[in-house]
Design goal:
Elements: E1 9-16, H1 22-35, E2 45-50, H2 67-72, E3 83-88, H3 111-126, E4 130-136, H4 149-166, E5 178-180, H5 183-212, H6 241-251, E6 258-263, H7 269-282, E7 293-297, H8 306-316, H9 323-332, H10 337-344, E8 354-358, H11 371-386, E9 390-397, H12 401-404, H13 408-416, E10 418-420, H14 426-439, E11 443-444, H15 448-456, H16 462-475, E12 481-482, H17 484-489, H18 492-506, H19 510-522, E13 524-526, E14 532-534, E15 537-538, H20 539-542, H21 546-557, E16 561-564, E17 573-576, H22 580-584, H23 586-593, H24 598-614, H25 625-638, H26 644-649, H27 653-661, H28 667-680, E18 699-702, E19 705-707, E20 715-717, E21 720-723, H29 729-737, H30 775-789, E22 793-794, H31 798-806, E23 858-860, E24 881-884, E25 901-903, E26 912-913, E27 917-918
Parallel strand pairs: 1-2, 1-3, 3-4, 4-5, 6-9, 6-10, 7-8, 8-9, 11-12, 23-26
Antiparallel strand pairs: 13-14, 15-17, 16-17, 18-21, 19-20, 21-27, 22-27, 23-24, 24-25
Helix pairs in contact: 1-5, 6-7, 8-9, 14-15, 16-18, 24-25, 27-28
């Protein structure tokens, strides 16, 4: 099968422009940086900027820089790039001289025009690069006393001529000009255009990948569930291309004879080696690797003996002797391994290699293998690593790494041969979700793929849960369509295992149900840390009656258990499919817990609290919310006497988070804490819903005062009440979910338009601000909530907003004080590049308690720019409405209390939300 791409795809973007559009160039460069983190592109695309006047260019470029000099220097031509962006305003650029002419003999008027023509000629010929031409059509302001007036007039005339020539230039390709009035509009245009083009390019790459594998047989199921991918499923293994490529590079170094792929449980270590690395080797990713002999096993797969497991594979590979004979010799003499390597590779060229893959190396430290046998097998592994004809790859759970360090030979190998496998990034996860389905001819209904991506999160263990959920959804596809209803039925990623297990449980007889806990306990071990882990058992030792065999068959069919049998060297064994099952099926977790009592948990608690105190009380030692609930139940049951250290150790996680938010934290840390608050239940007032299911608004009273707004008369404002936070997604969702909510046309009565569908929430987390909200949406929400709650609410005017945030006067102060503080708001400077939960900057609100007034999302105001009173607001007007407060994707300059932005009322984007004001007529209620 042809080799599949294993590296990021590079998209080269050439930027061409004269000097008078430097602001646009800066916006474009920032956009290119941001698009590198787009969920669809991240991890799959490397965006490379190309221009002949980059600020960090190694070659100092002069003002008059002929194209030929760039060519002589080896700089990339526009026609050699993927995308070319050409920008004009009032200048066409520096003249090139008589040597540069067009095919019809006319002179090329500037370097920028030459770059445009070079790109367009190639686009017409081959379809690449994609050429985007932008022109700021605003007037060029110049003083009549400007000494360069004549030159500027000439340049403007050249631009006019150039634009006029576009439609008539033969062979120039599409003559479309994207016109824009200002830099802000350019920013939104270029981001939209580039995102669309980049996705088109990646679609072509993906189709190319698919075509490359078209000759291979598709696996029966694109999603394997809890078990790892195997080698035959490489065609549907995605998301680890970068890691595969890096491992191949490491193994291609003749000095590299040992590599340990180390990661958390569920990170996909086995899948990476089985379906990523081994198939690439078989395709010859390393010269000659297609001839390598490959032996793969797990230490405990045959009677719990790592020697027997290795010996069986060596015997299968052609080593002389039976598995038992090889086992005995390896146990006596680790150095004898070399003679078996020679026999396996007998007759092959001297450069050929034996690849020894020891999967789930942590099995070596299980309770079924004694210390002596463990040390002997480590000695065999160390001997194997000395051979120039052997390459060893092991997979190891990170929580067993410390056990390896107890063996000096193994520790020495790990020092030079470790490959830490981190959690899959968003881009990688998206490929894991969508590409196997695409290859299998399956499609996702609506936004199901994005929803699964959001649900998967960043925790390594979620990978197995995601795979299992996808497997179940795929089993119930309707005409090739993966259904949202099925995903919701199984409880999403978190609930899929439990749902499937409970479905099986419901089919069992009472006798079978009574037998089930006993069966699982036989297949469960507990590590030294008290964590449940899988253990294999001989099938015959468990299935000693018809009822148990039937039970095992049901669980195997449901992919909750796996039966292995190589028929020659061992009898069949059975094990739990994945350790994720222990934490994802509440009933099983309860059965396991019943093997201990609350005193075990208490001892764990005391030990953990002591370790925490001894280590200086680091937060990383503290138990999460989910475990603290168990500890609380244990304390309720036992009512033990707890010392002060334990009492501090079991402080609820919500309390700890809120305490941390009151202090100094990085923006990224605040963002993660906000998401964690949602996970464990964010019950802060003003963030969620009331018992009646309506938005729970936390009102803050703002004393009246006079406000000065530029270009407007001074405005006297009475006392008002404003919401402490922007409306959250959870609160807005109540409006969307109500049959009498968004779909009721009455809430849009009198407005210039009624949107047909609501905007998509890009961060669909209930305690985040509602985003992608148009002014019409916000007005309808206010009307709905007023009708449902009986409390008159509306959007604040921008002078009311300024009073609440900047105080009386000209509003030049910030919510927290007179000076800007980068650490106090989620603006562009934060680097978070997304919204975060509301109210996370606890020390940065106004004295009255208004939070998130700077950054996070722009907030719609009721009025248009010229309005000076509520009564003057024209709801039927299509005129732009004021927005206040900046957002996560603009700089702090735009988040000032005095900055008045504006947007068209129908506009929606991922940094646009709103906040509520309580009508004054209702303040005395």
């Amino acid at each position: 099968m042809p080799k599949r791409t294993t590296q990021k795809h590079t998209i080269r973007v050439f930027i061409s422009s004269p000097a008078d559009v430097s602001e646009e160039r800066a916006v474009l460069r920032k956009t290119l940086e941001k698009l590198g983190y787009d969920p669809f592109l991240r991890g799959r695309v490397s965006i490379e900027e190309v221009s002949w006047d980059r600020p960090d260019a190694e070659v100092p470029l002069r003002a008059a820089f002929p194209p030929q000099e760039a060519i002589n220097m080896g700089l990339p031509l526009p026609s050699e790039c993927d995308v070319v962006v050409v920008l004009f305003w009032g200048r066409l650029g520096t003249p090139l001289g008589p040597a540069y002419v067009q095919p019809d003999g006319r002179p090329i008027r500037s370097g920028t025009e030459w770059e445009y023509l070079d790109a367009v000629r190639e686009e017409v010929a081959s379809g690449r690069p994609r050429v985007l031409l932008y022109h700021r059509d605003a007037d060029v302001m110049v003083s009549l006393n400007d000494p360069d007036l004549a030159e500027k007039q000439e340049q403007l005339s050249l631009v006019t001529e150039f634009l006029a020539d576009l439609s008539g230039r033969a062979g120039s390709g599409p003559a479309g000009v994207n016109r824009y009035p200002d830099v802000l509009r350019f920013g939104s245009l270029i981001e939209s255009h580039l995102r669309s083009i980049f996705k088109d390019i990646m679609d072509e790459v993906m189709r190319s990948d698919t075509d490359a594998g078209a000759g291979a047989a598709l696996p029966a199921d694109p999603f394997p569930g809890l078990r790892p991918f195997n080698e035959d499923e490489s065609l549907v293994f995605f998301g680890r291309e970068h890691e595969t490529s890096e491992i191949i590079g490491r193994l291609g170094d003749p000095r590299s004879r040992f590599l340990a792929v180390i990661g958390a449980s569920g990170a996909g270590k086995s899948s990476l080696v089985n379906a990523g690395v081994i198939p690439e080797l078989r395709r010859g990713a390393i010269p000659g690797a297609d001839r390598w002999e490959i032996i793969r096993f797990t230490p405990g797969e045959i009677e719990g003996s790592p020697f027997l497991a290795l010996a069986a594979r060596l015997s299968d590979g052609g080593a002389s002797g039976t598995a038992q004979e090889i086992t005995q010799k390896l146990e006596r003499d680790p150095g004898s391994f070399h003679q078996y390597v020679d026999s396996v590779l007998k007759g092959s060229p001297a450069w050929n290699r034996l690849l020894l893959v020891i999967d789930q190396f942590e099995e070596l430290f299980g309770s079924g293998i004694d210390e002596r046998q463990r040390a002997q097998f480590v000695a065999v592994t160390a001997e194997a690593a000395k051979s120039e004809r052997v390459v060893i790859v092991i997979t190891l759970r990170a929580d067993f790494y410390a056990h390896c360090l107890d063996h000096p030979d193994l520790a020495a190998l790990l020092r030079i041969g470790s490959f830490p496998l981190s959690s899959a990034g968003l881009g990688a996860l998206f490929r894991m979700i969508t590409r196997p389905a695409e290859i299998a001819g399956l499609t996702f209904e609506g936004q199901l793929a994005e929803r699964i991506l959001d649900d998967a999160g960043a925790e390594p263990g979620r990978l197995a849960l995601m795979a299992f959920a996808l497997n179940l959804v795929a089993q119930h596809a309707s005409d090739g369509n993966l259904l949202i209803s099925e995903y919701e039925r199984i409880g999403g990623i978190q609930g899929a295992i439990a749902t499937r297990a409970e479905e099986v449980f419901d089919t069992l007889t009472e006798d079978d149900r009574a037998q089930l806990p006993k069966l699982f306990r036989r297949l469960t071990d507990v590590s030294e840390a008290g964590v449940p882990v899988r253990r294999r058992a001989r099938l015959n030792s468990l299935a000693d009656d018809q009822a148990t065999r039937r039970l095992i068959a049901l669980l195997t069919q449901a992919r909750l258990m796996v039966v292995s049998d190589d028929e020659e060297h061992r009898e069949a064994t059975i094990e739990v499919s994945h350790e994720a099952l222990f934490g994802s099926w509440p009933r099983l977790a309860e059965w396991i817990q019943q093997t201990r009592d609350d005193m075990v948990l208490l001892r764990q608690l005391r030990r953990a609290a002591a370790d925490w105190d001894r280590a200086g009380r680091p937060d990383t030692f503290l138990w999460p919310h989910e475990r603290l609930i168990m500890a609380e139940a244990m304390v309720q049951n036992l009512d033990p006497e707890l010392d002060p250290v334990i009492e501090e150790f079991i402080i609820p996680e919500v309390t700890r988070i809120l305490t941390e938010l009151e202090g100094d934290s990085t923006h990224q840390r605040r963002a993660s804490l906000g998401d964690r608050l949602f996970e464990i239940g964010d019950n802060r007032p003003g963030v969620g819903l009331t018992a009646e299911g309506l938005p729970d608004i936390l009102w803050r009273t703002i004393p009246g005062g006079r406000v000065i707004i530029r270009d407007l008369p001074e405005i006297q404002i009475p006392d008002l009440q404003l919401a402490a936070y922007p409306v959250t997604y959870g609160q807005y969702q109540a409006f969307l979910d109500d049959p009498d909510g968004f779909q009721n046309p009455a809430w849009f009565d009198g407005l210039a338009m009624r949107p047909e569908t609501p905007g998509r929430q890009f961060r669909a987390i209930p305690n985040h601000p509602a985003e992608n909200i148009s002014w019409y949406d916000a007005i309808a929400f206010c009307r709905w909530l007023t009708a449902k709650s009986g409390i008159p609410v509306r959007l604040p005017t921008d002078w009311e907003w300024q009073l609440a945030v900047g105080g009386p006067g000209d509003g030049s102060r910030y919510a927290w004080g007179p000076q800007w503080d980068d650490a106090a708001a989620n603006t562009l400077e934060s680097g978070v590049s997304r919204t975060m939960a509301v109210g996370l900057y606890l020390g940065s609100g106004t004295p009255e308690g208004i939070h998130d007034a700077h950054g996070n999302v722009w907030e719609w105001c009721l009025n248009q720019l010229p309005d000076t009173s509520v009564e003057g607001v024209d709801f039927a007007s299509e005129g732009a409405r004021v927005v206040r407060g900046g957002s996560w994707f603009v700089a702090s300059l735009f988040a000032k209390s005095t900055f008045r932005g504006w947007d068209d009322p129908e506009l929606r984007y991922s940094a646009l939300g709103f906040r509520l004001l309580r009508e004054r007529a209702d303040l005395d209620d």
